[in-house]
Amino acid sequence: MPTVEVYKNLADQKERISAVLGKNDDDNGSSEAQTIERIWEQWVMPEEKERVDSLEGLDEIEEERSEHDPDF
Question: How many CB atoms lie within 10 A of CB 33?
Fold first, then answer.
């Protein structure tokens, strides 16, 4: 994600989006954003977290593939 290198924190990302969207008649021109961690904690149901955690073995497979396959 190239923008992460330029807009390193949540405040920077919100400012970037506000600049792009500008102010319109429907709102005060503000934007909101969430971190991935906060979305995981607040939006993802416990059952889904358990399901994803059970897929941990896939991390090693993906890591191995990414080391040997530059197109992965």
Answer: 13
The pLDDT of residue 24: 53
Give the C-alpha separation, 8 to 63, whole Å.
Answer: 25
d(CA 40, CA 34): 10
In the chain, which residues have pLDDT < 50?
25
Closest CA to 35 of 60, 61, 9: 9
In a domain, 49, yes or no: yes
pLDDT value of residue 6: 87
**The pTM is what?**
0.44
- Is the same domain home to 28 and 6? yes
CA 61 – CA 47 distance, rounded (Å): 23
Alpha carbon 16 to its chain centroid, in Å, reads: 15
